Amino acid sequence: MLKSSVSKLFNIKYPIIQGGMAHVSRAELAAAVSNAGGLGLLGSSSMTPEELKEEIQQTRKLTSKPFGVNIAIMSPEPEAKVDICINGKVGIVFTAAGNPKLYTKKLKDAGIKVAHVVPSARLAEKAVQAGVDAVVCEGFEAGGHDGIEELTTLTLVPLVRRAVGNLPLMAAGGISAGSQIAAALALGADGVQIGTLFIATKECSAHSLFKQKIIEANETGTVFVARKYRPQRILRNPFAEKIAELDAKGASADEIRNAYGPERGRKGAIEGDWENGYFNCGQGAALITEIKSIAEVMESLVSGVRNGAKLVSLRGMK
Ligand SMILES: Cc1cc2nc3c(=O)[nH]c(=O)nc-3n(C[C@H](O)[C@H](O)[C@H](O)COP(=O)(O)O)c2cc1C
What is the pLDDT at residue 293? Predict the structure, then answer.
């Protein structure tokens, strides 16, 4: 059933990873994805080390399947989170947004499988040199922090495949349907990491307004902002328009930092403050039309992969 080097590496049924997302990837979501045959990740970047410890314990109560933790290296207290994973015997860690050399060896020495998220082939090479077990390449369509290189998933996957040789590779960015997973596999990926689609689910702890706005988003519903300070793709809301205007005026990193102020991500994702918060969201939101359960999402992704593969062969592509 969709076996690949990624499903083998993580001992999961389907090579479909739920990306670790600040504010919205907690125990219930991660456990539901793992229970449905994918790999759920806790998003630790918005958690304190103590909160992470509790979420790991909570996830264990909800699933006996493998799950992992995402650690954004530039988020607060990454080393303490690495230690929590080691002491808590977490089997899988996805690192991102920082130098993969910093923690890969320590995690691997503790028997943890390590994947690192990259936005370019150049950084994929660095991840390979750091000794990671797998790489996620994330295109510019993705929700959250994107690479300023602006490489789209379609171009990035084959480039990164070339850079990483046979290492297990996951594609991320813009994927909301099984046909897109089939396309990513055709491009050379062994699996996918998905974020935005998993927010629009019953099990995700995101504010209901966030989920609703994902459903409502059309093809221009997201915008890439704050290139000089915190390059990220977010839903187009009053706050995003304000930052986009500063970007267009050529505002400095400090000016943009001041306009952000603290806690905007929390205001959006958790409090549902449409005016003042930001909502990390990928372009694939335009393909999402309803809020489903994780079981329904996984089922439609898996059947969509098969249909996508069939479509290709029906068109005579052998
Ligand atoms: C709300 C949100 C928060 C995110 N936070 C993180 C994070 O803390 N660390 C990280 O590595 N990636 C983060 N991401 C990226 C996801 O893990 C994933 O790679 C991305 O969402 C894939 O693109 P997609 O949204 O188009 O599916 C975030 C994405 C979203 C939408």
Answer: 98
Query: Cβ distance 309 to 177 under 8 Å?
Result: no
E strands of 8-126, at which residues?
Answer: 16-18, 39-43, 67-72, 92-96, 113-118
Please give the mean pLDDT across all residues of the chain. 96
pTM of the predicted protein model = 0.96
Question: Which strands make up the sheet holding 222-225, listed edge to edge?
Answer: 144-145, 232-235, 222-225
What is the C-alpha to C-alpha distance for residues 17 and 67, in angstroms, rounded to an integer?
9
For the chain, which residues make up each domain, given as ranges? 5-205+297-314, 218-280
Q: Does residue 117 line the site of ligand 1, with CB under 6 A?
A: yes
Q: Report whether pLDDT(316) > 90.
A: no
Quick check: CB of 222 below 6 Å from ligand 1?
A: no
pLDDT tens-digit series, residues 70-119? 999 999 999 999 999 999 999 999 999 999 999 999 999 999 999 999 99
Return the CATH fold of 5-205+297-314: TIM Barrel (3.20.20)
The angle formed by the CA atoms of residues 152, 156 and 158, to the nearest 5 degrees, is 140
Cβ of residue 72 lying under 6 Å from some atom of ligand 1 = yes
Give DSSP secondary structure letters for 181-210.
HHHHHHHT-SEEEE-HHHHSBTT--S-HHH
Atom of ligand 1 nearest to the CA of 141: 26
